[in-house]
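Predict the structure of Glycosyltransferase subfamily 4-like N-terminal domain-containing protein.
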Amino acid sequence: MHIAFYAPMKAPTHPAPSGDRRVAQLLWRALEEGGHDVSLASHFRAYDRAGNSRTQQALAREGGDIAAKLIAGWQADNAALRPDLWFSYHLYHKAPDWLGPAVCTALDIPYVIAEASYARKQTSGPYGAGLEASLHAIARADAILSFTPEDEEALRPVVKYQACLHRLVPFLNAAPYRAARDARPRHRDAIAQRHGLDPSRPWLLAVAMMRPGDKLASYRLLGRALDLIAEPPWQLLVAGDGPVRDNVEEALRPIGSDIVFFAGEQN
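Done. Here is the predicted structure for Glycosyltransferase subfamily 4-like N-terminal domain-containing protein.
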C-alpha cells in the first residue's frame, strides 16, 4: 500500500530535533516495516504558536492551496504515486490538518490519524479556527490511533463512529539500546573521558531542549530539587542545547561544577 504521510506539527524531516519529530520518524518506520511504501505528502507546517486568528487564516489558505495542488497532481492520468491511504500524525488546535481531509475526499481514500487531540475548552479561545479545523478532521477520520486514554475519551463524542478509535501502545526500536547495553563498559568509559565524569560514581541523565517556557521551567525545578541534596554521591550529565542555555546553566550551577556536566546537542 502506498501511504501519504503528513505531520502538521513538524515533519519527520524537520531539522530541529524534538520528541514530536522522533515519534513521526518511528511511525514512518513502523509503516515501512509493515510492508508499506511511505512518502511525505508535504513539508507544510501548520503550527500557530501564539493563537493569532490572522495567522490561522493564512495557514488555512496556504493549506488549501497545497491540498489543491496535491489533488490535481494525483488525479492526473499519469499519477503513478497516487496514495492508497493518507496518514496524519499529531493534529490539534495549534496545528490542525488543513490538507488530509480535502485530499481524502477528492481521491476517495481512507483518512487515518495518529495522536489527535480535541480540547473543547478552546472553543471560545484564540485558537478557534484551528480547533474547528481539527474537529472537522477528527470527524472525517476513518481510523484514529490514540496514545493515551485521556485523548481517546476526549475524542469519543466527536468521532464518526466509536469503532474508528484504536489504542496504540508505546513502542520503540529496541535494537540500538540492546547494542549499547552489550557494550556498556566501553561506552561509559568514552562518555567519562569526553565530559570529565567520574566512572566510579552513579550518573543521572537529563535530556531536553533548552528553550523558553516549560522546558526552562523544568530545568529550574530540577535545579532547585537537586540542590536540596547535601553531598550527592552522583553526577548529573545534561544533554541538550538551545537559546536559553545560559539560563539553564545558571539554574543548575548551585548544585556544583563538579556535579553537573553539559554534553550539548546530541543526535
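The chain has a mean pLDDT of 94.
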